[in-house]
Amino acid sequence: xxxxxxxxxxxxxxxxxxxxxxxxxxxxxxxxxxxxxxxxxxxxxxxxxxxxxxxxxxxxxxxxxxxxxxxxxxxxxxxxxxxxxxxxxxxxxxxxxxxxxxxxxxxxxxxxxxxxxxxxxxxxxxxxxxxxxxxxxxxxxxxxxxxxxxxxxxxxxxxxxxxxxxxxxxxxxxxxxxxxxxxxxxxxxxxxxxxxxxxxxxxxxxxxxxxxxxxxxxxxxxxxxxxxxxxxxxxxxxxxxxxxxxxxxxxxxxxxxxxxxxxxxxxxxxxxxxxxxxxxxxxxxxxxxxxxxxxxxxxxxxxxxxxxxxxxxxxxxxxxxxxxxxxxxxxxxxxxxxxxx
Length: 341
Known about the structure:
- The chain has helices at about 15-40, 40-45, 45-65, 70-105, 110-140, 145-180, 195-225, 230-235, 240-255, 290-295, 300-305, and strands at about 270, 280.
- The protein is mostly helical.
- A two-stranded antiparallel ribbon has the order 1-2.
- Strand 1 (about 270) and strand 2 form a beta hairpin.
- The longest helix has about 40 residues, at about 145-180.
- The radius of gyration is 23 Å and the shape is globular.
- The chain starts with 16 loop residues before the first helix and ends in a 35-residue tail after the last helix.
- The model is unreliable at about 330-340 (pLDDT under 50).
């Protein structure tokens, strides 16, 4: 039921649900700030508290909007913040998978640094399409054809976002399969598995679950957009609180309990030897190609055809010191907290 004739909502917006979700997201965000300090992982997981902050402010705006349902700027702010927050968690998964590939470089199908640049680049393109589509739809002076084009762009951007994320999951699955074939990760949990194998399995499973949660939310948005403003999802409030609220909070809470950097070293130069047990200080995997070339050809297909030799530093393990046995205050491990490894 609409709360008033001038309301921007096709229903009477809840004044309780935004407050509850604001409180739970705030508690999770504060805990993620603490975990980033504890693991010294701001470089890798700063996106977790940032996504939480967007949700906190988004639901705060939603609460204000519930009391002022005809106030357009507050309505737009709430909608945009709640749309922007979930993709931030997707970026977290990109960063974490890149970190996993740095940790096991000899099984990586792509340069680890290209994971974030490739998928974040795709997200940026999708964001531009979304912004253009939203601007056309929101423009009060737009012609019907412009509004129709804007809606089409908005639909296309949401579908592309879903496709991009499925490609990411496929990349993770391909790497996971390589780990199983190499014997680094057991197909099923076994008590005989070593500590590093258990950690790798846990972090990969965390990303699968996180990806599934975010994908469900994306599917919700795709269906909502295709149903239109008069569809079931747009005219009922509870689906938003389920998919943008509870689903996303479940993702945050899961990463509160099993923080990614509990299972990974906080330095990209540390890698796991092929024995699946020993951790060593390497030089890090440096892509010597021009930056623009790495964006155009992230998988280095050209190098494959030209049969260019790569810097396979992991084939010279004996030259690299074992983590914890390097000279304190000197060498490759100097100044790095190995306690979080």
